[in-house]
Amino acid sequence: MLQFDVTHALPFLPANWLSSRLDGLTEARRLLEDGSGLGGEFTGWVDLPRSYDREEVQRVLQTARIIRRQSQALVVIGIGGSYLGARALLELLTSPNYNLLCGTSPQVFFTGNNLSSDALTELLDYLRDKDFSVNVVSKSGTTTEPAIAFLLFRQLLEEKYGREGARDRIFATTDREEGTLRALANQEGYATFSIPRDIGGRYSVLTPAGLLPLAVAGVDIRGILDGARSAMTALRRPGQENPAWQYAAARNALYAQGKNIELLAGYEPHLRAFGEWWKQLFGESEGKDGQGVFPASVEFTTDLHSMGQYIQEGARDLFETVVRFTVPQSSCLLDPHPEDPSGLGYLRGRDLRFVNEQARRGTALAHAAGGVPNLLLTAGERTPFWAGQLVYFFQYACGLSGYLSGVNPFNQPGVEAYKANMFALLGKPGWEARRQALLAGQTPKG
Amino acid sequence: MLQFDVTHALPFLPANWLSSRLDGLTEARRLLEDGSGLGGEFTGWVDLPRSYDREEVQRVLQTARIIRRQSQALVVIGIGGSYLGARALLELLTSPNYNLLCGTSPQVFFTGNNLSSDALTELLDYLRDKDFSVNVVSKSGTTTEPAIAFLLFRQLLEEKYGREGARDRIFATTDREEGTLRALANQEGYATFSIPRDIGGRYSVLTPAGLLPLAVAGVDIRGILDGARSAMTALRRPGQENPAWQYAAARNALYAQGKNIELLAGYEPHLRAFGEWWKQLFGESEGKDGQGVFPASVEFTTDLHSMGQYIQEGARDLFETVVRFTVPQSSCLLDPHPEDPSGLGYLRGRDLRFVNEQARRGTALAHAAGGVPNLLLTAGERTPFWAGQLVYFFQYACGLSGYLSGVNPFNQPGVEAYKANMFALLGKPGWEARRQALLAGQTPKG
Q1: How far is CA A303 from CA A312, A325, A347, B260, B280, in A?
Q2: CA distance B132 to chain A (A)
Q3: I want to staple B136 with a disulfide (CB 3.0 to 4.6 A). Which of B77, B119, B191, B319 is the partner?
Q4: How far is B379 from chain A (nearest CA, A)?
Q5: What pLDDT is recorded for position A417?
């Protein structure tokens, strides 16, 4: 099981940081268990690692084999929770350079998450003479960014393979019954997978939204689900030994002390995309009602030479949560000349993993001494099983933490504001009144 | 010239936000001009776009041609300012997917910026059967991360090409006279380029540290320097019309209002690495003495579906600075069926660039209405000339802003703390006393 270590945050916490929150955590747990809290209609992820549809996962694996046979690339069209989880685990479990290193596995491209004509044109051009498939991931099918990308890539598929051929290369992950994408998929006969209605985007990585792209890349998705189930079993047990309770309580207590920025830090580049997933999970769950810890992420030791100065000596409103793996996949023995001119001679015979671990220990001590509390989450190997544990840990801790801080951790009302203005400015039918207001220099709230 | 627009921040600023800072800006400008301020020995970048060594730039271009002929890949070894600028402009001016799309140009890999055995092993394996060259970038040559990577890649080059052959594939960018890397380069006969002693890492992108990798990728580095010179001429002119004065004053005034997090935002994925460069520039320059705006970056519209909720409705201590290009490189006409099931019909005949621009406008209005001041910096095209302007703009504004806030914008004393602990824990000779202290559970400050 994951280990949570609060040692380097204790000097910043009152003695009762955990005990004073046990009642709140007990209540938060109950709300997650029985779905009776704010947003309780979106707590389907809590039991998912036990109750998921085995048959559908079987079909995900079969479909992945088909895509791997017929395609040099998979284009995943989705925004926010419809791609961040898949991308996070893809980079964590393969490499940030997956598309260069994937060999005979299909490349995986994440698109439909912006409105950049340069980015879309670039990818369309790259794929024009390649065999590819599309996985469009959207609950509704009407979100502008993925809808536009789906339009463009569907047109390219139809040019290349004809309308019939394109149908065999489009895979839709969407609601089981409702929505535009579901209707279109039924009409066109696309193969489909479902995102359960009681699971929101940022909690959906263990549904086919995350699992299909991962399976196409050859990642062991059953291992991920096994890891999540193992974490679920441990973390739903109440009590102050529970690492998710500790994490939720510690970040809550640090926020109460004025530490209003949390940095998720890792010592492997493979965690960079995971940091983006984590930022959505916590930022979108807790950043509302004028409050919430601001989530940022850093990659160490890399960013110790960019953000390190600020962390060590800037405004003292930060805390850090470090994700650590005890066993890297590769060994890399250092063999400098004893008189190495760069002064590395003393590292002769050391493995690089040892050096990286001392950097981590030294940084935790330096940051804590500089006034930055450090939390540490330790996993075993960088494998699907441990990745699944990490996903469930952060999801569960986020649910607890959101209820502890009194918000609805499962809505995101603020995401509509830019869309409303954009629709009005684009002249979308139905938004005429807002358009008039904006053009008159007024800005309606919300 | 770049346009700076403060419209959507004005409601958050006192009327005298600029006028009350004109004296301070006049003084900050003087300190930058005559190098008499804190850290004045590191202001060589101020005049660099005019005074740079033409002959050396000529040699950078010649060397780039040699590397392009002899190599399928260039490995850039450097950490912090020794790679972030090159990476920022490479991704901005080509693509975040450069290594997939580069065709007959060499791939460019940035390494030596972490201690991950998995990441280093992965790259060593990838390059084993490719022709590659190395550009090692370090003022001193003793920083642990690049020194270890240089050891490993030099060993691989010597295996592949012999010691003589390896010499022709190693290019060192370092101090003109001093330091371990300079001594090694002289001894081994590597081709070398210099980082002027009066320019620190985070201000070094317009030196060969940034220019050589960019030239290898085929980027027009003279265009970048021309753009920087153009910005320099405009921005060194004093006065309240000066966009760098306005930016420095506005962020300073917003910080005084309690807006202690700044988000650099762009609407092109090509700006993502630029955000990392910007974070080092401002975070390392201003994050000291227990103060400083915390720098973060976001990519829109992508992150409107992850960080967007927080920005719209979370704690109100944020402001945003948006970098915008008026003309994207590609046109992408939308041609949905009038009855498009996703509801895109109203966009028929529109260019995607128009949609992206309305998203930007709508977001600025939404965020300002939600309590997040918006600053806007507008460039023309995404070209070397405009990229050079952006670099100089932010460097110059950062120098002004640092002096306005009373810090030394050119040192980074806090970066040493983790290194000291790491050396002690690794058992490096000379760090025995600190090692004893750490093992006894004490943590020396600084």
Answers
A1: 12, 18, 23, 20, 8
A2: 16
A3: B77
A4: 16
A5: 93
Q: Which two tokens stand for residue A427?
A: 């002249």
Distance between CA atoms of residues A222 and A388, nearest Å: 9
Q: Note whether B195 and B360 are within 8 A (CB).
A: no
B294 neighbourhood in chain A, CB within 8 Å = 261, 294, 296, 310, 314-315, 317-318
Give the DSSP per-residue string, B356-382. Answer: HHHHHHHHHHHHHHTT--EEEEEEEES
Using an 8 Å CB-CB cutoff, list chain A residues near B347.
Answer: 148, 426
Predicted ipTM?
0.97
Under 8 Å between Cβ of B356 and B302: no
Residue B8 known to be catalytic: no
pLDDT in tens, B275-314: 999 999 999 999 999 999 999 999 999 999 999 999 999 9
Whether B126 shows a pLDDT value over 70: the answer reads: yes
As a whole number of angstroms, the distance between CA B42 and CA B32 comes to: 10
Among B280, B312, B422, the residue with its CB nearest the CB of A417 is B312
- Answer yes or no: do A362 and B418 touch at CB < 8 A: yes
Residues of B in contact with A154 (CB under 8 A): none
Contact B172, B181 (CB under 8 A): yes
Give how far the C-alpha of residue B268 lies from the chain's centroid of Cα atoms, to the nearest Å.
Answer: 16
Q: Do B113 and A183 touch (CB under 8 A)?
A: no
CA-closest candidate to residue A386, choices A304, A296, A305, A325: A325
The pLDDT, as a whole number, for residue B445 is 67
- Please judge whether A359 and B148 are an interchain contact, meaning their C-beta atoms are less than 8 angstroms apart: no
Measured CA to CA, the distance from residue A346 to residue A212 in angstroms comes to: 47
B284 carries an active-site annotation: yes
Helix (H) or strand (E) holding B132: strand B132-137
Cβ-defined contact of B116 to A269 (cutoff 8 Å)? yes
Q: Which residue of A has its CA nearest to B78?
A: A302
Determine the Cα–Cα distance for residues B252 and B29; give it in Å rounded to an integer: 15
Beta strands in A79-220 (DSSP E): 107-111, 132-137, 170-174, 191-194
Q: What is the DSSP letter of B291?
A: B
Mean per-residue pLDDT of chain A: 97
Question: How buried is A257 (Cβ within 10 angstroms: 0-12 exposed, 13-18 middle, 19+ buried)?
Answer: middle
Question: With bands split at pLDDT 50, 70 and 90, how would you rate the model's confidence at B446?
Answer: low
| Alpha-carbon distances of B96 from A119, A122, B53, B269, rounded to whole Å | 9, 11, 30, 7
pLDDT reading at A211 higher than 70:
yes
